[in-house]
Write a structure and sequence with these properties.
The complex is a heterodimer of chains A (151) and B (117).
Chain A: H1 2-82, H2 88-94, H3 96-117, H4 124-128, H5 140-143
Helix pairs in contact in A: 2-3
Chain B: H1 2-19, H2 61-70, H3 82-115
The chains are: A mainly alpha (151), B mainly alpha (117).
């Protein structure tokens, strides 16, 4: 009788143990799937972060380049007024008509630069300009981004 | 009496077992809804009026005023010295650069937040 009870208890115990193992197995499988999903989403996140980082770098680079062109444009403008011993006032007294034409042309070019800076479309003529005589000298990089300045 | 107790015990077990069923679990789904895009229209580009500069010296002053009168324009001019003209040209250039910089910043923000999604 006692042996029978022990046998039944043993079989029941083994059954319960097997069921526990199966439950553990199912939990581990679920965990595995969850971990794989986690790794996948982390990889995606890392890729996105890398893309974002590159985009930020690229934007900074662009803006820095833009600020550099601003500096150059201002220096060029200063040169136009003060190159060597140039005195625009004296020049205007000596060659009034010519300087007036130059000033008006320059003012028109500067106004066009403001229009372009505000988002105006570039004309075909502006986009085709490759020579110094063709490009808007007030803002060459803005008038035609493909323009390569030369001395 | 013995049977009565047995029935009561079974009934009690059934009642208590009923408590173990419990409530239904509430599941909350969180779906990420992206923020609506601002999509403001791009500001219209400027279309500036043409300004005419007149250079006036002590020598050509009379001639300039006479020409203005002949053209039916009030013979009055708002003057700048050559140095002030230089300053106004540089100020104009700086304003234009600031406008360009702001526009570029806006474009970069738009590109970063809207195109990478």
């Amino acid at each position: 009788m006692a042996i029978a009870i022990m046998l039944i208890t043993g079989i029941a115990g083994a059954g319960v143990y097997v069921m526990k193992l199966r439950a553990d197995n199912a939990t581990l499988k679920a965990n595995q799937i969850e971990l794989e999903r986690g790794i996948e989403s982390q990889t995606k996140l890392l890729e996105q972060q890398k893309k974002d980082f590159n985009a930020i770098l690229e934007s900074n680079k662009k803006l820095n380049a833009l600020v550099m062109t601003f500096k150059k444009d201002l220096e060029d403008l200063d040169k136009r007024f003060n190159k060597g011993k140039r005195d625009i006032g004296k020049l205007a007294i000596d060659r009034t008509g010519a300087i007036e034409r130059i000033i008006n042309k320059g003012a028109d070019n500067a106004a066009r630069c403001v229009e372009l800076a505000s988002g105006a479309e570039r004309t075909e003529e502006e986009l085709k300009a490759t020579k110094k005589s063709e490009i808007n000298p007030e803002c060459p990089s803005l008038a035609n981004p493909a323009y390569v300045p030369y001395e | 009496m013995y049977h009565m107790n047995k029935i009561l015990l079974i009934a009690l077990m059934i009642v208590l077992a009923g408590c173990s069923v419990g409530e239904k679990r509430v599941k909350i789904f969180s779906v990420e809804e992206p923020r609506a895009k601002l999509n403001l229209p791009k500001p219209e580009a400027l279309d500036l009026e043409k300004v005419r500069w007149i250079i006036i010296t002590s020598e050509n002053a009379e001639q300039v005023f006479a020409k203005l009168e002949a053209e039916g324009i009030d013979p009055v001019l708002f003057g700048l010295t050559d140095k002030d003209f230089e300053m106004i040209a540089k100020n104009f250039a700086q304003i234009r650069q600031k406008l360009q910089e702001t526009n570029n910043l806006l474009e970069e923000y738009k590109r970063y937040y809207e195109e990478t999604e």
